Amino acid sequence: MAGNSSNGRFRPRRVQGILREFLQVEAAGGFALMSAAIIAVVWANTLTDTYHDVWEWEITLGSGDIRMTVPFWDNQSILLFQPITEHLSGWVNDALMTIFFFLVGLEVKREFVAGELRDPRAAALPILAAAGGMIVPAAIFAALNYGGEGIDGWAIPVATDIAFVVGVLALFGPRLPSGLRVFLLTLAIADDIGGIVIIAVFYTSGIEPGYLLAAGGGFALIVALQMAGLRYITMYAVIGVAVWYYAFESGVHATISGVVLGLLTPARPYRGHRVMEQIEHRLLPYSNFIIVPIFALANAGVVMTFGTLEDAFSESVAWGIVLGLIAGKTGGVFLATFLGVRLGIGRIPAGVTLPHALGGAMLAGIGFTVALFIAELSYDDHVLLDQAKIGVFAGSLAAGIAGALFLYLVARARPTPPMTTMT
Fold first, then answer.
1. What angle do CA 278, 280, 284 make, to 5 degrees?
2. Is 199:251 a contact under the CB 8 Å cutoff?
3. Burial class (CB in 10 A: 0-12, 13-18, 19+), 369
4. What is the largest CA-CA distance in the chain?
5. Domains and CATH numbers, the chain
6. pLDDT value, residue 285
7. What pTM, to 2 d.p., does this model score?
8. Nearest 10 degrees: Cα torsion 185, 302, 100, 213
9. d(CA 187, CA 144)
């Protein structure tokens, strides 16, 4: 989101105000997400058949093919649209979540233009921390599941759910330095970028070049219209829906189209309009309080009896996720942060100490939303998928509780010196 002055530059105070508003909405969204997840678990454990029947309900978009005849190509017809049939849960994951990823794209763009990622030295540390927090959990999961049928879920524990993290930090108010919130937010943005790349590269199959080319043409059209000075958001929204459809049919996961559309949105004032700010202000409440909770309702419902829990934790999939989120995230993020500061690769925000960084690394193990999303992409086998979901629940809950308790003790303790570089 961009602020402006008469010369079109960003005003720091406006950027800080936008950041505070974003964090407040994210914190409230975390509680909404938690409530939806609890409802999903209760629903799945009390009315199991009803839960699955609802989300497996098939919905078809369209009633027939739409074709266009090309006169200069021997009157050959090009297929522009064919009906799509998906389960309700599929529409949630492939369509509704595109809006969530669109907002992720906006946030990435804003961070590179006006946020911490704009300054290479300030960005270096959270990027390094995010890399450590992705590599180590993935390595732990892969080590436990190497050669097994669950190896496809290696990317599940790499994600950090910023909504839950911000929600936990909100409980402490001013007792924690604001720099810790900024650091974790920037880390989560860098983590999102890594997660998007993983989804695009490793969870894409059966590419259809024609549809992919059509999606690329849609992106090019958006750029051309921006260069021409057209600023009608409705027009871009229509093109965006078409791009989503062609991305969906191309074999690339459709949510990636949302990320690219977010990255194409102007971050700076565009012909006197703060386009990104207006769009994010309108969509963020819908995403945090409707779309993501619906995603949790559709995907968090797993039967949790003594038997299912015992079965899950007798297998390496659940343990790979739990250990990845708890030990992998904490160790990877903290070690990368510590080494980055000591070696002078990046700088830690003012007021953030070594214990703060360790507590933040623990909270980075809350990987709920994107972890569940990647789990759905990883497994067609419902047994493996349920094991993965239980692992996500257990790992995220343990990481959140451990991080919150540790930061509570840090907030009460005598202040410690801030982290410094090696001399």
1. 135
2. no
3. buried
4. 80
5. 12-204+253-412 (1.20.1530.10)
6. 87
7. 0.83
8. 120
9. 26
